[in-house]
Amino acid sequence: MNREIIAQLTDQIARLKAEGREVILVSSGAIAAGSKKMGLPGRPQGIPQKQAVAAIGQSTLMLTYEEAFARYGLKVAQLLLTRDDLANRRRYLNARNTLFTLLNWGVVPIINENDTVVVEEIRFGDNDNLSAMIGSLAGADLLIMLTDTDGVYDCDPRHHPEARLIPLVEKIDSRLEKAASELPGVLGCGGMSSKVQAAKKASSAGIPVIIANGLTPAILEQVCRGANTVGTLFLPQLKKISSRQYWIAYTLNPRGEIVVDDGARQVLLHQGKSLLPAGIVKVNGRFGVGAPVRLTDADGQVFGMGLSNYSSQDIALIKGLKTAEIEQSLGHKGYDEVVHRDNMVVFTEA
After folding, report:
1. Model-level pTM greater than 0.85?
2. Containing structural domain, residue 276
3. Which of 13, 79, 81, 87 is 20 to 30 A from 270 via CA?
4. Are residues 278 and 225 in the same domain?
C-alpha cells in the first residue's frame, strides 16, 4: 500500500470536489495492508488466508484514506460489496440509494470488493470490473481507471520500442481486445485486458472511460480539464443500454445457457423480438424460473443475456414447439416467451 500515491490521489480528489464535482473512489489495498501488518513475505495464496489478511488490512486502508481526506475537511465512507450484493435487485437499489445519499452529504464513498467473505462464484474478478458496475449503478459521467502505464498500446512497449499509445478508441473490437491481452500487467488482480473489458461494459452504459497513468502528477485534474495528451479515451456507445439492462448483462451470474438456431438469433439481434420456444435448439445447465441465462448460437458464441420465464426442465420439453403447443406439452402455460425482450440484452458484436 503506497501511502504517497494515496496522498497524491486525495489531494487531487479534494481539489475536484472543491470545484463542485462528485467523486467515487474504487480502491483495493486491504490484502496488501494486512500482509504487511502480519509481516508476511508476500501475498497469501489460500482463500482463507487472503480473507483473513483482508479483514486485518481493511481498517488500515480506510484509516489511511480517512486521515488523508481529513486534511481537507472531507469525510469518507466505506462500502464493501460482492457480486451477490448487486445481483439481488433490491440490494442493488439499496446500494445505489446509499451511494446517492453519501454524495448528497458531500462524503467520499470508497468502495472495495468484500474480500473477507467473497468466494469465486460471487467475485467481481477485479476492481476494474467493479468500477464499471459502480459507474453504471451511479450513472457516472466519467470512469477513470488509473494504472502504471500511460494507457493502451497497440503492442507490448516492453518488447516493441515502436509501440504506440492509442489515444482514442471509438469502438472496442476483437483486435484491440487481443492487443490488450498481450500488454504488461499492472499491480493488483486486473491487467490491461481487464481494464479494456471494463471500458467495454462502461461504454455500453453510455459512460466515457479513460485509462491513464496514476503516477503522472495531477493526472485526475489533467483528465477532468480535457487534456488530450494523457491516457486512452474510450468513447461511449451511441446506443447505450439502460441501468436494468446493464444489471442483467454484467452483474448477474448466469445459471445456464439457451442455444438457439440461426433464424432466432437473427430475429433477436436485429428485430428486437422476444425468444420463443420455436427457435430453441438446446438448453444447458439446471436452473429455475427467473434465472439469468446466456443466449448462444449453435457454435457456442454468446450473443445475449436474459431472465428465463421457464425452468431448464420445462425448456427441454418445449424447445422447438410453437407457442400454442406449450400448454399441451407442460399442462400449463405461464408465458408465450421463454425470455421476454424486456428482460433481455443482446450484444452488438457476437
Report:
1. no
2. 254-346
3. 87
4. no
